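Changelog note: in this version the structure field was regenerated for every chain. One regenerated record is shown below for reference.
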Amino acid sequence: MVAKPYANPYAAGIALGLVLLACFALTGQGLSASGAFAAAASGAVDALAPRLAAQNSYFQGYLQTQTAAIVAQVAAVIAGGAVSACLNGRWRLGIERGPHVGGMARLFAAGAGGMLLGLGAMLARGCTSGQALSGGALLSVGSWAFMIAVFASAYATMPLMGRLWR
């Protein structure tokens, strides 16, 4: 089966903006992803070792706030991605990689990159989706500066990484 073309970026951007608006209206907070993982980890530690969770201020910060909405957001992103892939003929099992990168190397690089991104999100107390979408929508100067830096660094490293995909 031949994959259909990607969605129109303008229509997708408008849809994402409407999702962000609905998120602000329904939950009182914007979109974010890293908080969901911290909330899920805090809940798991609280379920398995409540005394340890009670003694840890990091876990308490997540256990004392309303985190169900952010966990639901991430679950909806996963479900939405699956539905979109099915509707557009892109659902298949495989590892996206360039011709010069093996499957295990790609999985290692993706895992290492994900861990570094997660560490950076925890150190920054937020993730790129929260910065770009929620902070950008609120016209936060720090969020706009962060996203300019993200795009500049992506363009700067693309020539190095692009060779692996050709």
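Spot check on this record: The CA atoms of residues 95 and 102 lie 9 Å apart. Residues 97-166 form one domain.
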